[in-house]
């Protein structure tokens, strides 16, 4: 699969989606980046065994390499971790032709991606996403970055990878909660841009839950295609097209802010958020109730919540305030991505706040 | 003057070169960035009085603004300073339409430029260079970045400004040593790309030393044009054209490394470096001795050294080792930019080391 961000073929790159492709990383690197002499493999502690063999393989093809392992979890997406990766690159005497290889979920991808974007004003990046979310979402589109103590993803760069290697085999070890969370984004692609894909998900829900490789490959491929198409239309998030990927997310970010750390995963928050968004669209008469019903059934089938756990205190006013402070809003007006039919969404900036709070509960 | 990096008009920006233009910054911003509602003015302690009025002017046109002052000097080009600027942006609730305004020399420009490149994956940047070096060199070309404890400019991004405002009046307060250092880069442009400009510098050397506004405007304009032309041919330093700007610099970086902190300014090191490079070209029969003589005379006229101060211990082997570790070298081979006539240089990767060391002394 070839991705051309912003429709510019010169910066296009390949997504290779194939069981076992993780083991081909060194060969891919020498093929695509023949001048590269040094590579740092960044991963997190949970994936050390998966990533470690790559450094040997790289040395085998004449590329000096080092493994850089960060703590698993969002806290590693920090300026401090970034500094650590720069140190490992310097230890390798990495020059501008060096490569950073991110083996992990979105945390490792975003962190290592920004290290690649900024070390010596930019070196090559190969993404090897290992979580479902990273495969279908974060590894496509070129967004990289780290958090600041005062907020998420506040620092970063757009930096397209030299290639993305997706090995569905590695999903076997992904914890259930992470896998189901990734499926929330998968459902999102169906609702925002592909009703036929949504139907395919409904038909294959059992095999998907079983992580059957026969369905995982087409599933991941379609999500990457759908995301890549959006990115191609709006590489730098300037035309508004990319905002459609935010379906369910303005609600979700508010829920994540209000819930305590670890109570609600991102995917779970998105699942509840899409439910609120679809409910809002129904209440405005924009979609028939059937779209909400089908979306709810699929999310529940994928073991995702459709309302907030009782433990989360989220009075409507607090939700609204948190939604208003979402950084995707322009000039303080609440911008919501709402479905206009299954497979199509639009951005609305004029939704009355009473409608929004009414949509928070069934 | 309009600059189109990489020849792409869509990303072009204006350099406005005019006495008093500093005071027009707020008007420029509202004209070019009508959506901007928040701007951070970054400067250093020596320039506080120059920069402070801008924040009032910005508030006057409805843009929330803050002054962020760093310590003068290279040490402020750090990840820590960067973090501080992010904090000021967050205090202003700056969103993606925000602007960073760099009022200062190359240190402030590089630091504030990288803050703009990375905050929320990139906000707008206006450069208001105040040192001669920043006016003729660092504010043109889009390079931004910070140092790491282990080396200079190791982290950064290419980020083109929305505009560059050059006010020659502010040069009045620039310390002599900084002014003369900037002239080393000015002489460089003549040697590498414009013999007529070199002749003009010789004719107007007196007025230039007096900082006569009547010569400063055409001087700065020509340097910006010459640098912009090189950058347009090689925006991301990939084709090798941009390497010509490195004339004298491989020597200079070695001298700066060997000299203690503060002994040799960058411009002084470049002046000695260009002298060595021209001498080397003469010894190889590439240029007549006359080119070296004229370059030497002009550098001396501009109060620049043409050999290392006695205090700097620089045995030839140490110089060579330092030159070899310059990050502009590819695969360890020494790459030198040498004149082939006044107004033209080429990159040479095959100069015998004995010739290099011989060129270190007259
Ligand atoms: N760049 C983008 O466009 C983009 C898009 C969406 C999300 N994100 C970012 O992605 C991050 C979330 O990504 P994530 O959900 O992958 O989180 P993550 O990277 O923290 O991974 C989740 C957990 O799963 C583990 N894991 C990953 N792959 C595994 C495997 N194959 N086997 C066993 N364990 C495995 C990880 O060690 C981690 O503990 C957030 O920081 C978010 O901001 C970025
Ligand atoms: N980005 C690029 O393309 C590029 C190119 C060349 C150099 N640089 C960088 O530029 C930096 C050097 O820049 P610099 O020489 O301007 O140093 P600088 O920014 O430290 O300024 C030199 C000194 O002059 C003072 N000063 C500046 N303008 C003044 C004025 N009008 N009146 C009084 N004092 C004034 C400053 O406060 C400082 O003390 C280095 O970090 C170098 O790496 C970047
Ligand atoms: Zn998401
Ligand atoms: Zn220089």
Automatic annotation (TrEMBL), chains A, B:
SUPFAM superfamilies referenced in this protein's UniProt entry, alphabetically: Dehydroquinate synthase-like
Catalysed reaction, written as an equation: 7-phospho-2-dehydro-3-deoxy-D-arabino-heptonate = 3-dehydroquinate + phosphate
Single biological process term from Gene Ontology: chorismate biosynthetic process
Record-annotated 3-dehydroquinate synthase C-terminal domain positions: 182-329
GO CC annotations, alphabetized: cytoplasm
Pathway: Metabolic intermediate biosynthesis; chorismate biosynthesis; chorismate from D-erythrose 4-phosphate and phosphoenolpyruvate: step 2/7
Compartmental location: Cytoplasm
Residue positions binding NAD(+): 106-110, 130-131, 143, 152
Residues the record lists as binding Zn(2+): 185, 249, 266
Keywords (A to Z) from UniProt: Amino-acid biosynthesis, Aromatic amino acid biosynthesis, Cobalt, Cytoplasm, Lyase, Metal-binding, NAD, Nucleotide-binding, Zinc
UniProt cross-references to InterPro entries, sorted A to Z: Dehydroquinate_synthase (IPR050071), DHQ_synth_AroB (IPR016037), DHQ_synth_fam (IPR030963), DHQS/DOIS_N (IPR030960), DHQS_C (IPR056179)
Function: Catalyzes the conversion of 3-deoxy-D-arabino-heptulosonate 7-phosphate (DAHP) to dehydroquinate (DHQ).
Family, similarity comment: Belongs to the sugar phosphate cyclases superfamily. Dehydroquinate synthase family.
Name this polypeptide is given: 3-dehydroquinate synthase
Native organism: Alienimonas californiensis
